[in-house]
Amino acid sequence: MSKRDYYEVLSVGRDADDSALKKAYRRLAMKFHPDRNPDDAKAEESFKEIKEAYEILSNPQKRATYDQLGHAGLEQTMGGARGGAGGFRDIFDDVFGDIFGTRGGGQRAYRGADLRYPLELSLEDACNGTEARISVPSRKTCTTCDGSGARAGTSPSTCNTCNGAGQVRMQQGFFSIQQTCPRCHGMGKVITDPCRSCNGEGWVRGTNTLKVKVPAGVDTGNRIRLAGEGEPGEKGGPPGDLYVEIHVREHPIFERDGNNLYCEVPISFTTATLGGELEVPTLDHRVNLKIPASTQTGKLFRVRGKGVRAVNGGGLGDLICRVVVETPVNLNRRQRELLQQFEAQMNESSNEHSPRTSTWLDGVKRFFEDMKL
What we know:
Distance between the termini: 77 Å
CATH topology of the largest domain: HSP40/DNAj peptide-binding domain
Radius of gyration: 36 Å
Number of helices: 10
Helix content: 25-40%
Order of helices and strands: HHHHHEHEEEEEEEEEEHEEEEHHH
Largest sheet: 4 strands, mixed
Number of domains: 4
CATH architecture of the largest domain: Sandwich
CATH class of the largest domain: Mainly Beta
Number of strands: 15
Strand content: 25-35%
Oligomer: single chain
């Protein structure tokens, strides 16, 4: 059976540097490691293939030979050998020793899982910053058994499969692979009489109340990392982190786009025609907005410095107001009469008072004339 290209195995380009190779190997080896895929023959084969590819490509001389001559060249120059079990063990320890703790034996320490917590904020709190209290589900040491998992008055016994080591060594051809003990699952001890409070787990579910300092300017999708507040590690491993994900509620007045705030401001027909001044809200107070005469619907007015300060310390955004001329409704008889008189006077010189309407009507007229042709 032909071997796959080593670069394809690690999913890297042929110009990948040592850092990219190590990162790819670490990710794939963690995914297909036998400890994480018990009784999965395909995962085990993939794991061996990944290790072999990394062993070759991480060695400058072997990589150069492979790049020039391929698999056949390696077979000739290395006599069919790919490095003994010790070589692969050394490679695995170099890459994963900081995760699994001990090198070459002993119980492996696993980092705790990262957690996510959705935090919903008002637009005001997101823009101005706040301090929030959150309650996060967590694992706590069982007080009944003090974390041993054994019923009070008893204690865990040494696993007779691994003799307390937590791992067993398996020989597979040229490879000697150290795996987590299937009986004690790496603990080195087994519980024959479990604690009833925690069912032998040594921990119970609880709740942690934490304070989260939310910086000014955060927006939906931003994350705040609380180091060490995730799930506790196993077998002495470090805890994971807690990521607080920001979700900003919709605001009845403002919409945010980057560091700018947008709002829609209704104005009367009279104000749009004659001009005027009105108050508009900002996040902290009010400002006066001057409306010039002959303002049309959709006109944008910018109030500088009344937007949102960038979360990374940049400048303030602006408040942008879009005016909408509101058509009068529920008119009485006298109001209708006045508007009809006004309309009649306007029609006497429509080009002067309604230039856009006149231009549009002229265009429509030309369109119909062209259609007749």
